[in-house]
Amino acid sequence: MTFKGLGPDPKREQFRRYLEKAGVVDSLTSVLVALYETQERPNNALEFVKQHLGAAGLNSEDTEALQQEVLELRQRCTNLSEENKDLKTKLQRYEPVPEDGATAE
């Protein structure tokens, strides 16, 4: 972007060269061209771009499955933490803390 009588912003030009060198500009251009050339426009253009850029290599089904797995693992972690707490409580009944307050580990 240039203004009257001023040259291009050096920081902006440096960033543009960085994006070109990294292949970002070519990748974005390719995806946008593919979107433009599709016969039927997708309902979700952003999802189209993500899929064609290979956003983390996952599709929405993979993402949903991973989100479900995270929920299940969090629940399992909560259950195991509760079980651990209960077991520690039971253990304290059988192994009282020494009178000097030190705990055996």
- Low-pLDDT stretches are none
Radius of gyration: 28 Å
Tally of strands: 0
Q: Main β-sheet, in a few words? A: none
**Total count of helical runs of at least 4 residues:** 4
The helix fraction, in percent, is 55-70%
Mean pLDDT: 84
Structural class: mainly alpha
Distance between the termini: 66 Å
- Oligomeric organization of the protein chains: single chain
H/E element order: HHHH
How big a fraction of the residues is strand?
A: under 5%
- Global outline: elongated
Which features would summarize this protein structure in a list?
mainly alpha; elongated
Fold blueprint:
Layout: H1 10-22, H2 24-37, H3 45-53, H4 60-94
Helix pairs in contact: 2-3
Could you walk me through the main structural features you see in this protein, from its secondary elements to its overall organization?
- The mean pLDDT is 84.
- The protein has 105 residues and is an all-alpha fold.
- The longest helix is centred in the last third of the chain and has 35 residues, at 60-94.
- It has helices at residues 10-22, 24-37, 45-53, 60-94.
